[in-house]
Amino acid sequence: MVNNKLNIIDNKIKINNIYCCDCLDFMQTIEDDFVDLVVTSPPYDDLRDYKGYLFNYQQIAKELYRIIKPGGVVVWVVGDKIKKGNKSLTSFRHALAFQEVGFNVHDTMIYRKKNTPFMRSNAYTNCFEFMFVFSKGSPKTFNPLKEKTARSGMEMLVHNKKSDGINKKILGRLNEEKTKTNIWEYAVGLGGTTNDKIAFNHPAVFPEKLAQDHILSWSNEGDLVFDPMCGSGTTCKMALINNRNYLGCDIAQEYVDIAIERVNHYLNKDMQLSIF
Ligand SMILES: C[S@@+](CC[C@H](N)C(=O)[O-])C[C@H]1O[C@@H](n2cnc3c(N)ncnc32)[C@H](O)[C@@H]1O
């Protein structure tokens, strides 16, 4: 039986596809321990008008724990609204809910936005969201991203410091690169977030580079990357470009249409996804 709305055949989802569906209904069609990595950003605090859709983050956390493989990772990008001078702390509530259903809070990373407008007269301008990294047990994959060190070449290095506090120094070569810190910075807006103009018909797109950096860090080629609230399809697009399998779902048909258009741009005509 084919359910046109979901394009689910015999109750089985097809990977490398994007569906229009409530993510909780959608995840019920996915078997246990199926997904390698989730990179997603939920709606929070009514900050944007997503046509009034609500979502149950406790139940979503539970379902994600069921469908993610042991050692799999969920990257959850979320911020906080300020209501009458009071931060909502929704981000923390979400993180605690994920911990309660069994996830490790492997890291609390920061997504720093390079170009944020000044917003509050009595506080510093907020320029970040959290990128919680939840894992089912210890992450099975970690391909650390590197960055250039400030200094390189030969230098006198501290060596063999003992309890007497005396530093010996020897000539050594400094590393040219080091593992990045857990604060990642991205430009936002056209040319930063993405060059796909159509993506901005969605109100809250996250940067392609952010999705790609997590995909490269926590998955390998051929792995399955899922975004249960895929919006304009950023995670699906970056998974495809980086030779991962992808699966996306969003409750709003107009966003699914955008996601499909963005992904189709990278697929041969005979492989293109159709809009149901
Ligand atoms: C912050 S946006 C995601 C944006 C996306 N990361 C991107 O780059 O375009 C959150 C999305 O969640 C979707 N959404 C809200 N409730 C949902 C639900 N119950 N099931 C699936 N998607 C839902 C909204 O339609 C919205 O597109």
Present the secondary structure layout.
Layout: E1 2-3, E2 8-9, E3 17-20, H1 23-27, E4 35-40, H2 57-67, E5 68-78, E6 82-83, E7 86-87, H3 90-100, E8 104-113, E9 128-135, E10 146-148, E11 153-159, E12 168-174, E13 177-179, E14 183-186, H4 208-218, E15 224-227, H5 234-241, E16 245-250, H6 253-264
Parallel strand pairs: 3-16, 4-5, 4-15, 8-14, 15-16
Antiparallel strand pairs: 1-2, 5-9, 6-7, 8-9, 10-13, 11-12
Bound molecules: S-adenosylmethionine.
Residues 22-23, 41-43, 50, 53, 55, 202, 204-206, 229, 231-232, 234, 249-252, 255 line the site of S-adenosylmethionine.
Q: What's the overall geometry?
A: globular
Give the neighbour order of strands across the main sheet: 3-16-15-4-5-9-8-14
Give me the CATH fold name of the largest domain: Rossmann fold
Please state the average pLDDT score.
Answer: 90
| Number of continuous helical runs | 6
Helix content: 10-25%
The largest sheet, given as strand count, sense and whether it forms a barrel, is: 8 strands, mixed
Distinct small-molecule ligands in the complex? S-adenosylmethionine
Would you give an account of this structure?
With 276 residues, this protein is of the alpha/beta class. It folds into two domains: 14-145 and 181-265, Rossmann fold; 147-179, no CATH class. The protein is built from six helices and 16 strands. It has helices at 23-27, 57-67, 90-100, 208-218, 234-241, 253-264; strands at 2-3, 8-9, 17-20, 35-40, 68-78, 82-83, 86-87, 104-113, 128-135, 146-148, 153-159, 168-174, 177-179, 183-186, 224-227, 245-250. The strands form five sheets. The protein has an eight-stranded mixed beta sheet with strand order 3-16-15-4-5-9-8-14, sandwiched between helices. Strands 1-2 form a two-stranded antiparallel ribbon. A two-stranded antiparallel ribbon has the order 6-7. Strand 1 (2-3) and strand 2 (8-9) form a beta hairpin. The two termini are 15 Å apart. The relative contact order is 0.18. It binds S-adenosylmethionine. S-adenosylmethionine (SAM) binds at residues 22-23, 41-43, 50, 53, 55, 202, 204-206, 229, 231-232, 234, 249-252, 255.
